[in-house]
């Protein structure tokens, strides 16, 4: 039995984590076995790398930072995601490989073709692609207001300037345009229940009857 691997992507404040929890709860209520996980993290080793990547200035160059994300992802896959898929579960993952492409490739490297090719090349040999990616897209001004209202401590990426976040948003849209069969874009500014229903519709359409 093979499960379904679903990832949620989007910029800061888009509502990914909230929707991931709501999706998992609704799918479980429908009788599905669901694993809810996140990146960076999702396994003991990857969670340790998460602390290094998000907490502060790790002193690494861009290439090393990319590979650190990949290392965390590989451990997450081997120890958490693949066993759940092999058991027939639906895996709901808050961020995955597209975030590395958007944040490091488009945000930090400003879409440098060499960096994008490097990330694509590593991804092709290092990890399994999602079956479905749900991209929450919304105006940056609304996302920023949500973050301010939330009042949580900010991580290293959230503290970067507005131009960086605009490049990340453009990167996610480029990814969606390049892979329309895998990536479904949903307007994250809609009411929470409406967003949830649209995400659920996309997942249910991929489930084997």
Observed structural traits:
alpha/beta, 13% strand, 209 residues, five-stranded parallel beta sheet, single chain, globular
In short:
This protein has 209 residues and is an alpha/beta fold. It has helices at residues 16-29, 44-55, 62-86, 97-108, 113-126, 140-150, 162-178, 192-206, and strands at 4-9, 34-38, 90-94, 132-137, 183-187.
Write up this protein.
The protein is of the alpha/beta class and 209 residues long. Helix content is 57%, strand content 13%. The chain has eight helices and five strands; from the N terminus they run βαβααβααβααβα. A five-stranded parallel sheet has the order 2-3-1-4-5, with helices on both faces. It is globular.
